Amino acid sequence: MKTKVTTHILFDCDNTLVLSEALAFEACAELSNEILSSHNVADRYTGEQLLSDFVGKNFRGMLIDLQDRYKFTLPKEEEDRYVSMEEDKVIEKLREKLVSCDGVDEVLERLAKSGKYQMAVVSSSAHRRVMASLEKANQATYFPPDRVFSAATSLPKPTSKPDPAIYLFACEKLGTSPLACVAVEDSKSGATSAVRAGIPMIAYVGSYETPKKRDEMAKTLKDIGAAAVMYNWADFENCLEQAGCNVSDAPAAL
């Protein structure tokens, strides 16, 4: 059944296009523990624990949550310094070990060849970090810098998903409406951000490590408002249709 014309596909980056979350949280666990220690907080985090608690959030959003959780306050200049330090540590790790999510490169290539959609990245992560990930994964050719939107560094006031601000900002800059887009997200915060912006959303759960976790996240993201759940990038065309993309507009041979 025909519903609307989709002109733009907006991709989250971390654990949607590239397998970066575990690497990023591994890199920032040491810095987070340094901050906690300096404020006399006894708790310490591993990268895996940070990933479990803060997946989908950028480091500034994580710092805000840690300050709220442990009742301390970072001066803005100190918070800015830690954010810059974390970005450098993460980029170093990504350039060393990062790989693409399974199957996504073939989909991106076919989408680009079809010419039927404009593609962009909408991320909570800093623009420099996203570009480093895309370059390492050989995906930057599909996403030039002006098609990469960061909640941490693109907005006049930095924020993080689940705030819908970065999606609304991306739509404005791309000259399109939320309903003409489809977003692809893997996390609760990212899915909530897209849904709050009024963008039809495909939930990607293929980056979660176990079948149980994939099924749990599929249910969670469906409950948030996912129009379709994608376990594998090979299912992308079917998910586009479920998200309301006209069959006649779908990329050929996907």
From TrEMBL:
Protein origin, superkingdom: Eukaryota
Q: Write one Gene Ontology MF term.
A: phosphatase activity
Keywords attached to this Swiss-Prot or TrEMBL record, sorted alphabetically, are: Hydrolase
InterPro entries reported for this sequence: CbbY-like, HAD-like_sf, HAD-SF_hydro_IA, HAD_2, HAD_sf, PGP-like_dom2
Q: Does the keyword Transcription apply?
A: no
* Record has Acyltransferase as a keyword: no
Can you name this protein? Haloacid dehalogenase-like hydrolase family protein
**Taxonomic source organism:** Gymnopus androsaceus JB14
